[in-house]
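COMPLEX REQUEST
Ligand: NAP
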Amino acid sequence: MTTLPTSSTPSDNPLITVAGAASKQGRSVAKALLASGRYRVRALTRRTDSPPVRELAALGAEVVVAPLELGHQADLTAAMRGSYGAFLMTPPIVKEPPADTEYTLGVQLADAAHAAGVEHVVWSGLENVEARTGGTKWAPHFTDKARVENHLRGLPLRSSFVYLAFFYSNFLEYYVPQRGPDGSLTFAIYLPPDAPMPFVDPLTATGPAVLEVFDNPRTYAGATLPVVGEVLTAREMVETFVRVSGQKARYASAYTRQELLQHFPAFGGNEWLVRELVGMVEYAVEYGYFAPGRDLQWSRRIDPNALNWEQFLKQSQWQGELMSFGSAPQAKPVEADVA
Ligand SMILES: NC(=O)c1ccc[n+]([C@@H]2O[C@H](COP(=O)([O-])OP(=O)(O)OC[C@H]3O[C@@H](n4cnc5c(N)ncnc54)[C@H](OP(=O)(O)O)[C@@H]3O)[C@@H](O)[C@H]2O)c1
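STATUS: Structure written out below.
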């Protein structure tokens, strides 16, 4: 493995810009890079006063205001200037055609990195659902990330791609279990009961993966790297929750469009979001979340401490309530996380 030379003093360490540094993924990356002692970190954010950004500043990150929004190309280029590397990601965006927001934003980020002279970009991507399904499934937040990947691969810089599995935190943030009159919980899950699916904790798993890539740039040039905590079924997730939390809970299906809207009627306010959620889960179940041949063991090999669902539940001490991860209030066009 080739290793990026480390420098003797932290001020000489390579600078890595982290886009969306307050996000679950971004803060994991920023913290892992800083904790290694081998990198300086520039944290891009819309606002400097959120708890995660304050924490990153206290850990030594340089905080720069640069929104992940269209029309900020010059700001993004300026914000990345002087960086050796960049971790680039898009916030949750629901595609509402004809707008092509996520793809356009991703291309802007990539072009800003190139214009700023960044040598190595790590892009948080996902599979190309359109290509994998012959256009039969609608999951643009996957496909548009893959389109950005194609764009990055055409730029004269080194690029690597991490593909995060479904987040455990989706059940804490977006698909929160409902408590019935008897106190028991119903987990309405967007997956059939017995379909094994990859999940991950973005708060602890993204950083080690991206650190490994920046530490070994030549090894991972052009590589696509799944980041997985555990592959398990929805039924197993609920059973594990019952065992760890000591609470009564049951699985209910929110897999079909009808079931999704029955359990989460608020989603019905955005038809594009509903189409995207249904398309995404049908894709994952019928075709597999990751394309065949992906190395699903890679992230565990480089980070043996990656949390499985049981460890995540124990560490978070989650009891089934709605949880916020401390990022800033959402702004248009972000309405819900679609993955
Ligand atoms: N949920 C899943 O299962 C899953 C799985 C794989 C991939 N993904 C992908 O992961 C990405 C989201 O990552 P995440 O969950 O780590 O993000 P997140 O925790 O929801 O945070 C998004 C952050 O982006 C920053 N941001 C900057 N500009 C923004 C804007 N215009 N609108 C909203 N936020 C903006 C915000 O921080 P500031 O306010 O500080 O700027 C916010 O904290 C999405 O692209 C999603 O498709 C999700």
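REMARKS: Residues 20, 22-25, 45-47, 50, 53, 67-69, 89-92, 126, 141, 164, 166-167, 170, 202, 325, 327-328, 330-331, 334, 337-339 surround NAP (CB under 6 Å). The first strand starts at residue 15 and ends at 18.
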